[in-house]
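TL;DR need structure tokens for one chain.
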Amino acid sequence: MGGMTSTPARPSAKRVLLAAPRGYCAGVDRAVIAVEKALEQYGAPIYVRHEIVHNKYVVQTLEKKGAIFVEQTAEVPEGSIVMFSAHGVAPTVHAEAAERKLATIDATCPLVTKVHKEAVRYAKDDYDILLIGHEGHEEVIGTSGEAPDHITLVDGPEDVANVTVRDESKVVWLSQTTLSVDETMETVDALKSKFPNLLSPPSDDICYATQNRQIAVKKLAEDAELVIVVGSKNSSNSIRMVEVALDAGAPAAHLVDFADEIDEAWLEGVTTVGLTSGASVPDVLVDGVLEYLSERGYGDVETVKTADESITFSLPKELRRDLRQEAAALGSK
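>> reply
TL;DR here they are.
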């Protein structure tokens, strides 16, 4: 060894900063419990229009219990029970379900319902509504469906140049609840400079859980050389968290569904790993990543807490009725 001495690495030097809050928000918790309760109460199958929440593991787990996920209401056999996902649906979907004589359970997150009600109210007052969100996202489709003749989608600041309105004194913005706060405000600022009379909604539409998780990930990014976000590729709020971590200065950030998707090369030269999860992610998946990291020397776990969350939502009212009987009655009409 030519007289060289090597300093043994101190295991305690490697650590994980675990974000709090992370994972399930109140709307997701409510939606997942609603599917489980419906299966318990009415037996399988329970049809669910679109993924109840955007998480692969959650969907697969519920499928094993007897939930059947469909893309369109037309796929649900007449006289069955169908549940609408946490992202919400347009009024036309409720009409389709009634036509097919389906008993429905609406698991739309109450915070999404709030945005739907705002859209209806502003449309009634004949405002042009500029909806900040991502084209094709289920929540955006649902909200747009509440007032299709009044809503224009604005997909980021670069979209603002193309926006036209009928009357610049009657314009309001609303937004998809799962966006990045910073990105949304950038779009709002661009819209305000184009439309100085732009009205803001009565309260910020970005959901409290999305905001809290983004604030926590910014905190992780201050000290972590690598940030791992547990979440699915179709989860808007999880994708945003990766972007927020990078924007906040994290040298690297990656999205994984499961621990086995982590590339060991990401850990090379990394002392501090930041770990968090999207709002539709159960903690069992985060535990899997902690175990993976622990096996590679990251046994020291420190919780980084930036907010307390105590919000809960009551279950959909339809779960307090006998829906099988209602579906049968609808089918016989």
